[in-house]
Design goal:
Layout: H1 2-7, H2 12-32, H3 42-52, E1 65-69, H4 86-101, E2 104-108, H5 128-135, E3 140-142, H6 149-154, E4 160-163, H7 170-173, H8 186-206, E5 210-213, E6 238-240, H9 242-255, E7 262-266, H10 275-282, E8 287-290, H11 295-301, H12 316-329, E9 332-334, E10 338-342, E11 351-355, E12 364-368, H13 370-380, E13 385-389, H14 402-416, E14 420-423, H15 426-434, E15 443-444, H16 449-455, H17 461-467
Parallel strand pairs: 1-2, 1-5, 2-4, 3-4, 5-6, 7-8, 7-13, 8-9, 13-14, 14-15
Antiparallel strand pairs: 10-11, 10-12
The structure holds adenosine monophosphate.
């Protein structure tokens, strides 16, 4: 933390204003709080610096051109029509503030995984009308994101330009194309790509006077438009957008500003993909529910018979370690005790409720059983901070969605009683939407991987770039 903080000052001219102001704050603080003396840590000093960094609210966009990285990677149907416009709606507060101030907007995004090649299927031209309708103003389109100099230069205050898919250029992601990692020439190719990525980011930066990062969904990637571009703007001309601010605040609510009891619910298929988060949460939560497919790895680790249930045989020791850690830290670990088992992986399978450590051969646990659901409810009831990532069963099939529904209902109930509840990660969001309960929780994150990395305690590159961290 401290090392990262200090690197901020490697470019003194760029940060001279911040340095002067922050030094003032630092000495002012000591003058006002002399008794706290050395307990005033770098953390506090850093906090003060963050307070004086540019924010979208403080910035007046009048007469300025702003290039905004959004996440318009929206799902399209066969006819190229948007089937869910949540991401477009999510970016509107930022985009509208810029226009309302009298700024001109250059919007950039990726869509899908075109792997560095032009592919009409992923063209952002398909969403121009939807963006225009959402903004209530015409939107121009630049068919080549790296050749939009003229269109950007011609933009007048209040006008909007949408750039074509950034990922039509491999430079956006910065990975060398057409060469395997094992190839001896790979390292040179990577270096060359990093150099052209900088050029690409510089080109994008040249279109505008300021940069706004509002794509939380890709904030965990160090891509040209999410991080590298920030190097071409000084600290007063780059900032996070409203959506990013909201996401960061939501994560802070569950990681820093914790109201207790804190219950985290981790579900889904595998313990291996969530281990970083589980470990980070272990120091923070009062109750930890581990459910879904991953629960059977725990059942087997304890000597249970799990039939054909999902299991990660190489994670049995890890499961026991997690159980021991929870015990040592006084965390109430809820693993459940029964399940709904099925004789095939299908909604119309025959089912039976059984002990989760005594599943008959040929059967598989696909949902939490009734006693387990009661344990879930008890651990969620009365909680004041709740985090949910990953379903408790194969919720996509109606007959195995019951355990997840109980969780969603218990969260809604606790939220009504004043808890802060954060739901994130693609499947739990799909789950809460399936139950029509999205408006009964405090916050639904737009980020999948980004949210998980933030909860793991990692600094996201998209945020670090704005704050000047390296
Ligand atoms: P993840 O991507 O790891 O968050 O896992 C989400 C997926 O886990 C969903 O598609 C669920 O259908 C699946 N899942 C949840 N519980 C089970 C289970 N008991 N057996 C198999 N898959 C499950």
């Amino acid at each position: 933390m401290q090392r990262r903080f200090l690197t901020t000052f490697k470019t003194p001219i760029k940060y001279v204003k911040i340095y002067t102001l922050s030094s003032f704050l630092f000495f002012f603080y000591f003058a006002v709080h002399p008794l706290e003396g050395m307990s005033v840590t770098t953390e506090h000093f850093k906090q003060k610096i963050l307070e004086i960094m540019m924010t979208i609210d403080k910035f007046n966009f009048a007469g300025k051109k702003a290039i905004v990285r959004v996440d318009f990677n929206v799902p399209l149907n066969e006819e190229g029509k948007i089937t869910d416009d949540t991401r477009i709606r999510g970016a509107l507060p930022t985009l509208k503030k810029i226009l309302a101030d009298g700024g001109a907007l250059i919007i950039m995004s990726h869509m899908g995984k075109p792997k560095g090649k032009v592919n009409a299927k992923y063209s952002l031209s398909q969403i121009v009308d939807a963006v225009a309708a959402a903004l209530g103003t015409p939107v121009q389109f630049a068919p080549d994101c790296a050749k939009a100099q003229e269109a950007a230069a011609a933009l007048k205050p209040g006008e909007v330009l949408l750039l074509e898919n950034l990922r039509f250029y491999p430079e956006e992601e910065g990975k060398p194309v057409g060469i395997e990692k094992e190839d001896p020439a790979y390292e040179d190719a990577k270096k060359a790509m990093k150099a052209s990525q900088k050029e690409f980011a510089k080109t994008l930066a040249s279109y505008a006077d300021c940069y706004v990062m509002d794509a939380f969904g890709t904030a965990h990637r160090k891509h040209a438009s999410t991080a590298v571009i920030a190097d071409y703007f000084d600290a007063d001309h780059k900032m996070l957008g409203y959506l990013m601010e909201k996401e960061v605040q939501a994560v802070d609510n569950v990681l820093k500003d914790i109201k207790r009891p804190f219950t985290a619910i981790m579900g889904g298929s595998k313990v291996s993909t969530k281990i970083g988060i589980i470990e980070n949460l272990m120091d923070k939560v009062d109750n930890l529910i581990l459910c879904g497919g991953m629960a059977f790895t725990f059942a087997k680790a304890q000597g249970g018979k799990i039939g054909n249930s999902l299991v990660e045989d190489d994670k049995l020791d890890l499961a026991l370690e997690i159980m021991a850690k929870a015990k040592a830290k006084g965390v109430n670990l809820v693993l459940g005790c029964d399940c709904v088992a099925a004789d095939k992986f299908a909604n119309d399978a025959n089912t039976q409720v059984c002990d989760d450590k005594n599943i008959p051969d040929g059967w598989m646990g696909l949902d939490a059983g009734p006693k387990t659901r009661e344990e879930f409810k008890a651990a969620i009831k009365g909680a004041k901070t709740i985090l949910w990532n990953g379903p408790a069963g194969v919720f996509e099939m109606d007959n195995f969605a019951g355990g997840s529904k109980v969780i969603a209902e218990a969260i809604a109930e606790a939220t009504k009683e004043g808890a802060f509840s954060l739901i994130g990660g693609g499947d739990s969001v799909a789950c809460i939407n399936k139950f029509g309960m999205a408006d009964q929780v405090s916050y639904i994150s737009t980020g999948g991987g980004a949210l998980l990395e933030a909860i793991e305690g990692k600094i996201l590159p998209g945020i670090a770039a704005i704050r000047g961290d390296k």
